[in-house]
Amino acid sequence: MRLSDCHNLDDFRTLARRRLPGPVFHYIDGAADDEITRKRNREAYNACDLVPNVLAGVETIDMSVTVLGRKLDLPFFLSPTALQRMFHRDGEAAVGAVAQENGTYFGISSLATISIEDIARTVSAPKMFQLYVHKDKGLNSALIERCKAARFDALTLTVDTIVGGRRERDLRTGFTSPVRLTIPSMLSYAFKPGWAFNYFLRTKFELANLKDHYSEGSKEPISIGNYFDTVLDRSMDWKTAEKIRADWGGEFCLKGVMSVGDARKAVDIGATAIMVSNHGGRQLDGSRAPFDQLAEIVDAVGDKIDVICDGGIMRGTHVLEALSVGAKACSGGRLYLYALAAAGQPGVSRAVRLLREEVERDMRLMGIRSVDQLSRENLRWR
User: Fold this and answer.
1) Which residues fall within 8 angstroms of residue 261, CB to CB, at 6 or more apart?
2) Is residue 151 within 8 Å of residue 184, measured between CB atoms?
3) Nearest-CA neighbor of 273 among 107, 116, 123, 44?
4) Which of 65, 73, 141, 328 has CA atoms 20 to 30 A from the CA of 308?
5) Residue 32: beta bridge partners?
6) Is 35 exposed, middle or buried (0-12, 13-18, 19+ CB in 10 A)?
7) Of 119-133, 166-180, 181-195, 208-222, which gets the smallest average pLDDT?
């Protein structure tokens, strides 16, 4: 199977599985416990049907949206995700370059494998930094100041990782950051020599923004769940979030909001956006899907804050359904991570192009010329 054989986002998953060692693939693909929430994130869109209009004159299509202070050419963007150079040697640099080509946001995680400064120097696309609140308050402040100096456009505070979800696939495969070599894992890596060559012999793997503060994750192998349990601050609360918002002073998003009550509190502390997200089903299994929660959150705060639907997006119709409910934009991680793992920057570029073409084609089929014409009148629930 080659990159040219990938015609939808599921095809990239198939190609990634062929090219990655088992532990690395299952880290991307897996979720918490029974993975019910991960499955529901996508299935939620199947409970909703689109109602098209015809004879609407759709020669010109405008997919642009304004979110987090920036006008984007696409109604979706590339969510921040961790450890990207473990999946492909180009990591965040490849994802940022594709975001730049397409005029949309992309984010890097606190657990990124390329530094804040290197991304700022090489990528001109709108950029967000995903902040995990560590017990080391000096580190938190330093990361914020570095993002200010690098002129990042938005700060996104992840609020759903007080403890790590139990990712049972990782427990079975022994996945860690960095890779811990055991006899079973060595066999898996040996069967993927291309990946092994790039990981072990080309680009040094490290958590570029954390390596000078923690050895865990860069020098000492640790699972992501144990990392969350060991170094993240369990005392984080709304006062913490409000202080971070004030320290940052710019566009500020909370990632992981799932209830109306929390959405209202986000407005109260001055956040400018929320990402309705359950961390891709990787934290609380049994949680509602973002699309299932979207309507009630939009109804409560959609006129006061940018509401972003994050999770389960694998088709252009998913994007249009979420926008019709009232989301300002959509985002996702797996929607580009499989492509990154499968083929680096060319893979991500093809994946984003395919999704963009789906959105554009589906808008024409619905008789919609611009995103602001979408509404719940376009939807019927089964």
Assistant:
1) none
2) no
3) 107
4) 141
5) none
6) middle
7) 181-195
Q: Is 279 an annotated catalytic residue?
A: yes
User: Which among 26, 88, 134, 279 is annotated as catalytic?
Assistant: 279
- Per-residue pLDDT tens over the stretch 104-118: 999 999 999 999 999
Q: Is 166 left (phi over 0), alpha (psi -120 to 50) or beta?
A: beta
Percent of the chain's residues with pLDDT above 90: 91
Give the separation between CA 171 and CA 291, rounded to whole angstroms. 29
Q: Is CATH 3.20.20.70 correct for 3-381? A: yes
Q: Sketch the domain layout of the chain as residue ranges.
A: 3-381
The per-residue pLDDT for range 262-305, each reduced to its tens digit, is 999 999 999 999 999 999 999 999 999 999 999 999 999 999 99
Q: Is the pLDDT of residue 78 over 90?
A: yes
